[in-house]
Amino acid sequence: MSHTRHIHHQNGGDSVGPSLSRQRAPGAGLVSDRYYDDFKVGERFVSGGMTMTEAGIIEFARQWDPQPFHTDVEFARKWSFGGLIASGLHTMAVTLKLWLEQGVFRACSLGSPGIGEVQFPRPVRPADTLRVVTDIVELRLSASRPDRGIARIRQVTINQRGEQVMEQETTVFLKRRPVMAANLAG
Amino acid sequence: MSHTRHIHHQNGGDSVGPSLSRQRAPGAGLVSDRYYDDFKVGERFVSGGMTMTEAGIIEFARQWDPQPFHTDVEFARKWSFGGLIASGLHTMAVTLKLWLEQGVFRACSLGSPGIGEVQFPRPVRPADTLRVVTDIVELRLSASRPDRGIARIRQVTINQRGEQVMEQETTVFLKRRPVMAANLAG
């Protein structure tokens, strides 16, 4: 179930504006712009799915992680995982893509200073369909910048059997709702 | 300075074999195959450089991290970093690529169960040339598998001014030298 629909309509009034930012996201018509102040600890967002293909796994790995268990089907078949597995970085990339397609932080993301411990408890193989479950685990205002807050999110990437293939925690800087920031400044 | 040259010649005798694995790595003629037993805590490996381009930053971000500060030069110019910056995941990908091109773990890598905390202390911009400094920070034998060891490596990615743009620690499973593993088994 997705919590991203019908939250509320917030014009924002920042320089990007909702109509422009809506153009940027796939399926944007379903999602309203949210700011730091609109999130609650414990909220959960479940992404759409994406199916990994042998071609996609090999192409990604050829470019960024050219190790034979990611690029060579014959090598991988005789190897300890008994078949081709995706680069962990590829799983991270798909996780990020699926998360961004939800558009949850689209209006308010100010980037990330880093990623917490990333775990790959199970291999990702061709034909696996991945989905990302994102929980808001911490929210706090920035001490130095009144226009922003800091969110800590936990993301678990699962396959079609519900098995966990990746887990990570990420810190993201989020814009406050313009009206909130303006009140504080005044 | 690279420590990857002229270490020693080790035939190995595993199913891949040195000639095949040499074909896989760029510049492989300079690098000898190393196994878990050949590394020491404190060893350092410095990669070659790779220059980030505006086109490369936008192309990567369009595919995996389509946020406007990574894909839209005009938006990014007015934004807090004052110009286009690379996706953190792109910097991770370049780091992995540069590290693998060194071939240090080519003969012995058995993959990674995860990545430690990843930090992006400074933005990466078009025309930045990145380089990766890898330190072996921990080596221990696997308790459950006599044919492998576990290495913890710290990687710092720097730009052309020597400024740190990324830092991470990764755990990697490494094959023991076949002769060592055979002695233990015997």
What does this structure look like?
The structure is a homodimer of 186-residue chains. With 186 residues, chain A is an alpha+beta fold. Helix content of chain A is 27%, strand content 25%. Chain A has six helices and six strands, in the order αββααααββββα. Chain A has helices at 18-24, 54-64, 68-71, 73-78, 88-102, 178-185, and strands at 44-46, 50-51, 114-119, 129-141, 148-158, 164-175. In chain A, strands 1, 2, 3, 4, 5 and 6 form a six-stranded antiparallel β-sheet that branches. Strand 3 of chain A pairs antiparallel with strand 3 (114-119) of chain B, so a sheet runs across the interface.
Helices and strands, with pairings:
2 copies of one chain form a homodimer.
Chain A: H1 18-24, E1 44-46, E2 50-51, H2 54-64, H3 68-71, H4 73-78, H5 88-102, E3 114-119, E4 129-141, E5 148-158, E6 164-175, H6 178-185
Antiparallel strand pairs in A: 1-4, 2-4, 3-6, 4-5, 5-6
Q: Which two chains touch over the largest interface?
A: A-B, 35 and 35 residues
CA-atom Rg of chain A in angstroms: 19 Å
- Helicity of chain A, as a percent range: 25-40%
- Largest beta-sheet characterization of chain A: 6 strands, antiparallel
Distance between the termini of chain A: 39 Å
**Contiguous helical run count of chain A:** 6
Overall geometric form of chain A: elongated
Structural class of chain A: alpha+beta
Provide the residue-averaged pLDDT of chain A: 85
Number of strands of chain A: 6
Detail the poorly predicted runs of chain A: 1-30
Helix-strand pattern of chain A: HEEHHHHEEEEH
Oligomeric status? homodimer
* Share of residues in strands of chain A: 25-35%
